Amino acid sequence: MTILRVEGVSKAFQGLHALGDVAFEVDEGQILGIIGPNGAGKTTLFNAISGALKPDSGRIVLAGDDITGRPPHRIARAGLVRTFQLMRPFRSMTVLENVGVASMSHTSAHREVVAHASEVVERVGLGRWRDTSAAELPTAGLKRLELARALAMRPKVLLLDEVLAGLVPAERAPLLELLAALRDEDGLTMLFIEHIMAAVMRLSDQVLVLEQGRVLTLGAPEEVTRDPRVVEAYLGEEPSGAET
Ligand SMILES: Nc1ncnc2c1ncn2[C@@H]1O[C@H](COP(=O)(O)OP(=O)(O)OP(=O)(O)O)[C@@H](O)[C@H]1O
Predict the structure, then answer these.
(1) What is the Cα–Cα distance from 217 to 209, expressed in whole angstroms?
(2) Whose CA is nearest to atom 24 of ligand 1?
(3) Which residues in 75-172 belong to E strands, given as ranges?
(4) Ligand 1 mean position to 144 CA, how many Å?
(5) CB 199 within 8 A of CB 143
């Protein structure tokens, strides 16, 4: 079943077509990897879907509900939540408190907030850090905290913006496993922008390739890597971090 439908979305900045007629669908419980060279429009696409930017034209439909142009907090409440590459937790608060703040988007009853936040903290593998202040977390822990804060908002669809950036290969593999488990065990739908091709290939059910604001191709990872246009536009660029 389709959970997210992007219909002919376009966005221009002073005449520059950052997105041109972008259309695709994501099925519930699937992971869509989004790749493309620098400036291809990946971040603009996330901004348009999550409400940070209003598209010039086109529609974004979440679980049958037209969310186009709604403000980000309303889109998040409708079930589409985004993580940011630049993580901004409340540094003086503990891991559990940070996640609790996000849980409050759904309930204000203290006991429920703590119970739900604790569950999410465990789910992302931060159980032993729950009472540590965010400021003391290493980068890999901060990535998990960012993920936990998003999960605490009970998303139907999660947008992940370069969640692996800044991690060494040994830290990437367990995070990838966690994302796969969130799909396979919890049925979470995810869209993720990623430059590390090996991670995209391993995790994605479908890969969307953007080039100059347009969809170059959309398909299963193995089809996409065989597409000569993709090799020329992107893979030929010597993707970084292929060792994951
Ligand atoms: N607010 C803005 N004002 C003007 N131009 C913008 C704005 N945001 C993005 N652009 C332009 O739109 C195009 C797409 O940018 P975008 O950041 O979406 O690409 P990207 O694929 O995310 O790139 P990267 O991989 O470098 O993050 C670029 O040419 C960029 O300069």
Answers:
(1) 5
(2) 38
(3) 80-82, 157-161
(4) 26
(5) no
User: Ligand 1 atom 11: the closest Cα is on which residue?
Assistant: 18
What residue ranges define each of the domains in the chain, with the CATH number in brackets? Answer: 2-79+155-235 (3.40.50.300), 88-154 (no CATH)
Q: Does 18 sit in the ligand 1 pocket, CB within 6 Å?
A: yes
Q: Which helix (H) or strand (E) holds 51?
A: none
Structure tokens belonging to residue 180: 């796969």
In the structure, what pLDDT confidence band is assigned to residue 107 with cuts at 50, 70 and 90?
confident
pLDDT in tens, 186-230: 999 999 999 998 999 999 999 999 999 999 999 999 999 888 888
- Token couple for 203: 């995790």
Task: Name the closest-CA residue to atom 5, ligand 1.
Answer: 13
pTM of the predicted protein model: 0.92
221 lines ligand 1 (CB under 6 A): no
